[in-house]
Amino acid sequence: MNKPMTSIVAAPSRRDVLAVGATLAGSSLLVGCSLPEVLSAGSKVEVGAFGPFLKFATDGTVTVVSKHIEFGQGNHAGLAAIAAEELDADWTKVKVEQAPANAKLYGNTIMGGTQGTGGSSAIANSWTQLRTAGAAARAMFVSAAATKWGVPAGEITVTNGVIAHASGKQAGFGELVADAAKVAPPEAPKLKDPKTFTLIGTDRVRRKDSAAKSNGTARYTQDVRLPDMLVAMVAHPPKFGGKVKSFDATEAKKVAGVTAVYELPTGVAVVANSTWAAKQGRDALKVEWDDSKAEQRSSAQILATFKDLASGKTPAPDDKKSGWKAFDSKGDAAKASAGTAVVEVAYDFPYLAHATMEPMNCVAIVGNGPTKLIFGSQHPTLDQINTEGIVMSLPGAIQIETVFAGGSFGRRANFQSDYVTECVRIAKKVGKGRPVKLVWAREDDMRAGYYRPLTHHAVRVTTDAEGYPATWRHRIVTQSIMKGAPPGSPGGGGVDATAVEGAQGSPYLKVTPVVDAQVITPDAGVPVLWWRSVGATHTAYVMEHTIDQLAKAAGKDPVDYRRTLYAKAGAGRHLAVLNLAAEKAGWATPAPDGWTRGVAVHESFGSVVAQVAEVKIVDGAPKVGRVVTAIDCGTAISPDQIAAQMEGGTCYGLSGAMFGEVTMTGGVVDQQNFDTYRVLRNSEAPTVETYIVPSTNPPSGVGEPGTPVIGPAVANALLAITGKPTLSQPFVKA
Amino acid sequence: MATTVDVNGRTLNVNSPPDTPLLWVLRDELGLTGTKYGCGVAQCGACTVLADGQPIRSCQMPISALGTAKITTIESLGGEHPLQQAWVKLDVPQCGYCQSGQIMSACALLATNPKPDDAAITAAMDGNICRCGAYQRIRAAIKDAASTPAPAAPAATTAA
């Protein structure tokens, strides 16, 4: 999802309803400093002597409290390592615990202090916070030891969890915890010189959850079992924006185990005492839908309207709010439409479902006390705010126990908390504090929207005498993700950064003398959302594939062509990852027999990634073998998990580029399950090698930046093989 | 209307209706939640368990059709199985949701082919989707496990 995402912009109004504002990436955050306190009003979360992020047990165990959900991205390992480094703790005795919902204690420092995970920000926004927490606790233990042993604090060392003095006295954290807890925390604890790090950046920083995730004991929402718990499934309207007109629950109620049927704003819920009974009951419902306000168009029709806007066949609204908006433009725009275009192409990108392995689900308890939610909450603050109006509670009083989530890729954080509020409404109808687990079938999940937006780009480039861009005309037509934010959000009327990021800020546009770049975000009734790497899912492809077409037209090597542009743009990080990837891939030497290399480079979420992919065509479809990846993500906390994210991000991006496509016919989503929404499988997965550029900068993202580069790298290899650009995704049509 | 099932070495009477897929009997009635729901139509492999050593998709297997098949789930591997050790050693899981199914498919593979090559691994594992894309580590971990001494048959431990 997008980086700096959410801020709270309105003061509490009637019945404590809060407006959630969304800020665009890089724009200023309009945050009242007291709002995290307002948001945490009613919270009963308590903080121990060592602050909200650290707990010490007498057995020597150190617990690092993670304010971020772990849904695969490995952040729990990295977060724990940051605190453990400053503590000089014994890594084998460090555990990770998931924080409860409390924006004041656990706000994301680059999401306006709201509690949420996204924008590849977990490590970046926690870096100073957890270093400080670790250093403060370390100082408290040292002080306690000095007092107890009667020696100067300056003579005490802490190494691998052992606090020691040259006199021979030594103790572990567990032995001194009671004394250390009485020491006042230092106001400005001294942080380590990164040159002295002993844990960060080593292969000792490994996941803490691999055993639980290999023996079946890791607990996901799907696995929550509580006394008297009911299971709910919901019949949803087949078209976006559809409503229930009427329904007949006679047959549903005959299913053994079904206890109730409720009408909801989002459909008809069947509640039962088992998952199978709930599904049988749901499938037996007869519902008539009111489609009068639903999106009735097919995806092909929506795309056609996008193309007509880009080509000018359909005039755009002539107003600042819904018309064309410029970004990165400079020079005489007329020149960008004149002269002889060297490359003039248009690209189409389909709607994409996140298709997490664990379909959306939630457990809610309403009545007989505070409302409690147990699920994989990606954005607890949004989920609290969206829930509080339903259960009439202070937002901070809504308790959220965040458990592992079986993937998200952005899906579990959205402005409406769609599946969460559906569960809360059912649990409120059940009432009496009886737990309800909402289970979405794969088909519910696949057809629920919140897709990567359908997007069209039109690009026209003229070149100078050396073959480098002289003018660049760029039109982007896509649905706005940020338009889904509630009213009152800042940035209204401006450019939705999630629609243009990656084209906006591109080093290629920076060095092009004339740029006429514009975006328009027409409405459609299909809910859209950030999908791992957000705008870069299409902008990286367009920029990188266009560059290879330009290099080809200029008769230049695509790596050399980029090197020249990066040098001119002062894009040193781009140049470094490109050179590293090219070197490790052996770009200067021929590819293995039968394989052809393609290259691409893209910056997202503060990190820059270059990939060289080896590709061949098998039975008419691209086959990707070795993929060499170079990344600059600032200080590398866990090299192994950075590699894991490059491997996984590459597969996710390749899956989308090769096979991903959600289509609609007459407003009804055509794909229901993995038999019709094809995803990458093991035999199609490349082998990714990861190389990290050494850096002393603060850490930046790794969860998303590995995703958007593989698509254009493969397309560029195909360009080298066939001589033709690949102008629409997916590469392999169903 | 009890149905008898043999799960992880125990013979159990279960009360779920006979048409209930084994997946939901394992999860909802027996509390064996290591086996996951992913698609319900035998497309993703998250629900993979062994029936007499063969990998099956428990989401599509009504308990009435099990007969005398002996069912083995992730819970019976005990945590120290060579595959599980390799999974931990290489930090294979990311979100982890698919991994019970992946390991059970790999378990069936190694039982019939103790030293699988790449082609044999991808052929055996292509029915198990991993949306996090841990595929190359899955391949590496299977090879790692295959290089360690042959595992004993899954212990018939009780997990229900």
Which characteristics define this entry?
heterodimer, A: 734 residues, alpha+beta, Aldehyde Oxidoreductase, domain 4, 7-stranded mixed beta sheet, 5-stranded mixed beta sheet, globular, disordered N terminus, B: 160 residues, 5 helices, 5 strands, disordered C terminus
Task: Compose a concise summary of this entry.
Chain A contains 19 helices and 28 strands. With 734 residues, chain A is of the alpha+beta class. Among the domains of chain A are: 39-214, Aldehyde Oxidoreductase, domain 4; 301-351 and 451-722, Aldehyde Oxidoreductase, domain 4, CATH 3.30.365.
Describe the structure.
- The complex is a heterodimer of chains A (734) and B (160).
- By secondary structure, chain A is of the alpha+beta class.
- Among the domains of chain A are: 39-214, 2-Layer Sandwich (Aldehyde Oxidoreductase, domain 4), CATH 3.30.365; 301-351 and 451-722, Aldehyde Oxidoreductase, domain 4 (2-Layer Sandwich).
- Helices cover 28% and strands 21% of the residues of chain A.
- In chain A, strands 11-12-9-19-16-17-18 form a 7-stranded mixed beta sheet, sandwiched between helices. In chain A, strands 14-22-21-20-15 form a 5-stranded mixed beta sheet, with helices on both faces. A 4-stranded mixed beta sheet of chain A has the order 23-24-25-28.
- In chain A, strand 24 and strand 25 (621-632) form a beta hairpin.
- The two termini of chain A are 27 Å apart.
- By secondary structure, chain B is α+β, with helices and mostly antiparallel strands.
- Chain B has a 5-stranded mixed beta sheet, sandwiched between helices.
- In chain B, helix 2 (82-89) packs across helix 5 and helix 3 (99-112) crosses helix 4.
- The longest helix of chain B has 14 residues, at 99-112.
- Chain B is globular.
- The two termini of chain B are 20 Å apart.
- Chains A and B meet through helix 18 of A and helix 1, helix 2, helix 3, helix 4 and helix 5 of B.
